[in-house]
Amino acid sequence: MRHKVKWWCSLSLVQHRTTVVFILFSLFPTLLGVYTQEHDFNMPHQEVELWARKIGNHIFHLSNAFALYNDIKDNFRTGEATLQENDGLQLVKEMTSDVTNMMKFKVDAVNRIMNVAEEASLDKYKQEEPVDYYNAKRLNPSPDIPQEAIDDKNYRNLSLLSNIHFDGIPINESVSSVHVPTNVYAKAPDVINAIRWSGRLDRTFKSNYELDPTLSWQYFGSSTGFLRQYPASEWVMDEKDPDLYDARLRSWYIQAASSPKDMVILLDVSGSMTGLRKEIAIHVVLNILETLNENDFVNIFNFSTETTELVSCFNDSLVQANMENIGEFKKALKTIETKEIANFSKALIKAFELLQRYNKSGQGSQCNQAIMLVTDGAPDNYEKIFSTYNWPHFQVRVFTYLIGREEKKKRDLSWMACANKGYFVQVTTLAEVREQVLRYIPVMARPMVMYQEDHHHIWTGVYADVAGRRGAPGLKEGYRLMTSVAVPVFDRKKTSNITERVLVNESVWVLRKREMKTANLLGVAGTDVPIREIEKLVPPYKLGVNGYSFMVNSNGYVIYHPDLRPVFQDILKPNYNSVDFAEVELTDYENEARANDSELLELRKDLVEQNAAERMMSVKIHLDDMKRVVQRKQKYFAQKISGTPFSLGIAMPEGYGKYKVHGQIELTREIQDHRAGDVMNHFSTGNWTLHPDWVYCEYKYDQHQEDQSPEALINEFLSRAQKPNWKWRSTRTRPPPDPIMNQAQHKRWKPSMGSDERRDNYYCDKDLVQSLLFDARATNVYSRKVKIEDKIKDRNTSSQNFGITTAFVATRSGLTRWIDNPSESSSSNGNSKEPHFMKVHNRAIDEVWYKRAVDYYKEDQDAYVYSVPFDAATRDPDEVLVTATRAIFVEENDYRMAPAAVVGVTIKHRKFVDFFKNETYKCPSYPSRNSSCKKAKTCESKSLNCYLLDDNGFIIASENEDDTGKFFGTLEGTIMESLVQSEVYKKIQIFDYQAVCLDTQEKNSMASILTTPIQTLKWFASWVMGNVFWVLVKTQLYTLWDPNEAWAYAQGQWDPNAAPTDEVTYSKGPINYQSAFGEYQEMLPDEAGIPTEDTKHPELPDDIGDFPSLELAYINKTHPRPCDKTVYLYKLQSKKLKQDGLYKPVKGKLSNCHTNGCGRPFSVQKVISTNLILVAVNSLCPCESRKVDIEPVEVEHNETTSCNRLLMQHYRKRPQSCVNYHPDEHEIKLCGGAGSLGPSSVALLTLLLAHIYNSMMQS
């Protein structure tokens, strides 16, 4: 060694430096390997284990002490809470019975409306008698303004009072109001006559409401176009937007007016169908599509020389007319091209053969069949084809639409319709399209009308009513989901005096009146059934935490379900009302999009067939806006709702869902026990609130008072309950009155309507209220006299408070109570701009933190489940709270247990992080962070990054405040993948079949128009037409032609003076709101740049909630479409972290993750008594880490799989009612006529020109 040193020292300085560099360079890989091994060797695995243990112990005992966990659990035990077995089959039977009774009341109500309407229509009135009615658009609801002070004498005073049962909308229960669409002439004789006789319905409306206080809007939609609705309310309109609501286009009207149908639409795309004819034809097809519903089947064929499907996917088939398929048709209509010569023979034969095949094979609707022929003229009547394919049974009706004004082309098309039980119309302008299309519906209804006695009621699928449309003040949800029941109203007269316009010598029109056999549909009677009224009869507390109910119709579509998500960023999704049951229940075996799991499809078939069902399935359930996932087994039970196409189902978790906690305080005994005192004493400590959506007690009729909170109502009813003669009245529903009841029996059955009787007509859920009292007594522990510090000392726990602000408990009965920590609340809650955490998260068993705590109990009975807001990094750090919750179970043994409550605390995140740093910045073997400890590896070292992750991989705490709430994979994707490979986390794939994808819409520049003069002329023509229609609508001058006719017109909020573009840009996508007042349908702008029928332009709300304005701005420039998305979520595998019953560190290393060959060792340790893991990662090696996020991505379907998805039809059950034939229908000779407009007057022409000139000057 000495020799070597001498030799080394003898080198010159240059040689010395050169040799050092050479040796270091040559030994670099070896040194790097030593470096990597050293750092691997020095990873503080033992320290990480000790840190995790100390953090877990401290926060566990502190949280237990603050939340008074043991006190509350002891109170449940000493209060003699017991377990009862949940009989799911019996439970669903009871719930179904209640729902069935409620539904029967609705059916009876519409039947009474129907009977009175049919009788009233036979009354004879003098035409000159004035008609007394309340016009919904001409009401003066303010009593301060006298009638004589109103400028417009058409307005009438009517007292309107806000009613909570009708969403706070001001109403009048004494009368109904009438809505007449702008496109209907209110003074036309047939309209006036129908308004007059339908006035008799008011007494029926009132009687129905007295019999059933849960009734929502009742209405009669007349075939003449008006709507009579009860109770009376003001129809809210925008002054700039004409009122376009037409009851005849609502689904409840169309479904009740005719039986299901198979329909083939033949669209002529020959060379003559250009320009305006093409636009009119497209609008005819669009309006026909608007009249279809989910029980109908349809296809559209373009025909010229050849006949081809409009949508190539729908090759040689009929598809269900759901919103997604209708959307495909509408998109394809934008791409049609006209060319060559029309071959009618091929088109008609194609249509007949397709319909015959479906009829014989048992596919489609198996009811009505129709061909809709849209053309500008036919060269022949093709009698041979009709005689071959349709005579003598006339299975297929033929409806013909002649586009254009040429009278000579009417004869053949009129013959086709009349010879095949159809109807012929001539459409000459865009303005009359809707009215002419609607004429086919009464023709389809003729067999039903002729049978008279068969009034089959229908139930619609779910749809969204636009809350606030009728003037609801301050309604925030925007939409109300509902279904409707409706029944057709028939004209009992078998003949009518018909006035016809007859063309003589092809040049002169004459009017002729004659009596003819008819079968007229007077209209449709109906009522709405809000989904919330159904859910009230299926109380969630009976199902327990993580249990839920759902309803499915005969098409397998969901009426309601906890995973039905109809709204995407304040707009209705394009196919929100055709979400299949198989799309909301995700089985645990589903590893590819739309995999047909046999167990799920069998359950779905039972629901569709309305069979009693009991099944078990393993499912994946996503939480927290699809960021967390739970896997569990669930038991399903289902029963038929008699008299409807619906099945009611419930799902309950296997395990703790088998049992429920039974603990009640008998109110009558409590009152008699003088030692007990006032029952409200059980609510004496802490703050408390009740589940805002649950019904504990409610008045059935007194609904004009201010909306009382559940807390105020329970206070009022508990005060009443302590007085003599108290009755529970806990029967939610009762069967409707028996038709064979005599007058005395019916009088006893019918509720009294005096003011005193109304106040005594209430409902109280006895089980729920008495369970609430039990829970209130068990949780009555948050007294300010009890010092938390004393509780901590009693448990030998360090008194260090790491930022606990609130202790709380929520129970199975919907009770939430809490107490704030004085030492923290003074600095946080007092100055906070945010509402108190517990006042926002007051839904007890429906809160995510409640559900997660109960689910995690199986993993670790002592664990608190921690979470932070996902957007914590964007919030004020002083406002961010950590939530920690732990479930309380009542247990009899290892198998019989059920959750009773969840306790928890909220912690200031900033102080929680300080505590985390304080523990991980020092060695566990040293009492403080001294110099000797710094030599060891701690999280304070720059070479180590430390994180606390929850059981789904989200960062609860780290050294960087900006990491809070983020998914760990977005920061350390490679480490996250290693944790999956090490089985620390499990990767679970979730599919979203209700997703919305946004396609960018390119906005054309003005320069493109300058280079395309044809487009400019096209826009100018559209602009002129728009002005014409606008004047017609605003002035109602269209009635000058014929007061008995009312023409539809192009609808939509369209500015004729707007700059020309190829497409219309919508603020939130092109949507239309309709219902019984409304249901959503997507429309497409036509090529001329004019919005199509029913298009509305909703404004952006002032308050956009939690959605960033940047994202909404992006949506404004996009078009939403339904799509499938998928995402991988993560779940902690706690059992994999145990060795011999103890949690041990998982040691890992990313080897050779950089070009220099270095690696990144890491250590993972479970934090005891929590759902957290502590992850320490060596940060010295600059490894490249790819991002792993949990944002859903679209499932890419190729053309084949996309077509298969659209064509895939799960099992469905056809409606029981089908009336498509009557032997005497051939005696009715009415089969259509001309629809052309008469000559315009000089005054009208002058007015139109003046308006156009003024518009040009202004622009």
Give an overview in words.
With 1259 residues, this protein is an alpha+beta fold. The protein is built from 37 helices and 52 strands. The strands form 14 sheets. Strands 10, 11, 12, 13, 14, 15, 16 and 52 form an 8-stranded mixed β-sheet that branches. Strand 38 and strand 39 form a beta hairpin. The radius of gyration is 36 Å and the shape is globular.
Lay out the secondary structure.
Blueprint: H1 2-9, H2 13-26, H3 28-41, H4 45-67, H5 69-78, E1 82-85, H6 88-120, E2 139-140, E3 156-157, E4 161-163, E5 169-172, E6 177-179, H7 189-198, H8 201-211, E7 218-222, E8 227-230, E9 232-233, H9 251-257, E10 261-268, H10 275-290, E11 297-303, E12 307-309, E13 319-320, H11 323-333, H12 344-361, E14 368-375, H13 383-389, E15 396-403, H14 410-418, E16 423-427, H15 433-437, H16 440-451, E17 458-459, E18 463-466, E19 479-490, E20 495-504, E21 508-517, E22 521-530, H17 531-536, H18 540-543, E23 548-552, E24 558-560, E25 567-568, E26 571-572, E27 586-587, H19 598-609, E28 613-623, E29 628-640, E30 647-653, E31 659-662, H20 667-672, E32 687-690, E33 697-699, H21 710-721, H22 743-749, H23 755-759, E34 762-764, H24 766-778, H25 788-794, E35 804-811, E36 815-820, H26 822-825, H27 837-840, H28 848-856, E37 865-867, E38 881-891, E39 897-908, H29 909-920, H30 931-934, E40 944-949, E41 955-958, H31 968-971, H32 973-981, E42 985-1000, H33 1007-1010, H34 1013-1035, E43 1071-1072, E44 1081-1082, H35 1109-1116, E45 1118-1132, ...
Helix pairs in contact: 6-8, 34-37
